Amino acid sequence: MKIFKLVDTFTPDGFYLTQSYGVNPSYYSKFGLLYHEGVDVGHKNKTQPVRACHDGECLTNYSNAYGRYVILLDYEQLYATWYCHLSRAKVVNGQRVGAGEIIGNMGSTGNSTGPHVHFNFVQIDKNGYRLYKTKQSNYGFLDPQHPLDPQRPKFPPGVPEYKIEWKKGGSMPDELKECLKAHSTLMAKIKRLEEEIKEWKEITKKAEDERDKLRETLKREVEASKTRIDEEKKRYKSFVQKVAEKLGSSQQEPEILEEITRLVQSEDKIPSLEKENQTLKEALEKKGKQVVVKKDEVHQSKLCRWLAKHGF
User: Fold this and answer.
1) DSSP string for residues in the chain
2) Predicted TM-score (pTM) of this structure
């Protein structure tokens, strides 16, 4: 009987069993398997580092089923282990690692219902190809016989019995634990900063929206003011034409002076011209007409110049 030696790095690192090997045949038959082809382990840290269970050469890839995964091949003992659904791989193809080295982080990529590591054990030939790769033998995915799995070893049809001796692996070095702790703290700070940035972006967008609304309101008010001023100008232009026509007869001069006085003291408001007000006042006083001109009273500079020119 073949005996394979591996190092248990899952138990010391705090992983726990979530699904045993060889269970749920009705579900896994949909994928052409006899039953669950590996062992699933979870961890309270959803991105917990995953360490190699033996020395070997790495292969890493991605598939719809396994997501991001790493295969570690041992060409001396002729077996390989698979670490699937990783959030990231920290090795490259052809890289050699030793037992206990970090090869990736737990995740939920591929066909997964939540963060965990799907762990497979297969036997290989000297070229690294999987043995017993038939449907009858569960495509060569064999029982890892992991210490976290309480079941008795289960052997697919056509596969000779074998034994896996799991050596208890040491826990992570303190320095590595401190690094991971610092990393977790840093990631938490980054997450908080990202949330603050998102909040500030929302505040900025709201402020920009309010600014745009204010601009539109001011634009409408300016247009309305321009319209009112244009209307006032038309009315004053009409009045100037009326004055020009009536000045042709001296008998109507008192009536004209009275109308001009009414204009100067008018309550109509358009932009005031204090200098022109004073000019018109002086012109009227020459005719003996006393007029009190308020500072903010309104009239037209063109009219003032015309009246002054004609001796008013």
Assistant:
1) -EEEEEEE-TTTTT-EEEE-TT--HHHHGGGT-SS--SEEEE-SSTT-EEE-SS-EEEEEEEETTTEEEEEEEETTTTEEEEEEEESEE---TT-EE-TT-EEEE-B--SS-SSSBEEEEEEEB-TTSPBSS-SGGGGGG-B----TT--SPP---TT---EEEEEEEPPPPPHHHHHHHHHHHHHHHHHHHHHHHHHHHHHHHHHHHHHHHHHHHHHHHHHHHHHHHHHHHHHHHHHHHHHHHHHTT-GGGHHHHHHHHHHHHT----S---HHHHHHHHHHHHTTT------TT----HHHHHHHHHTT-
2) 0.57
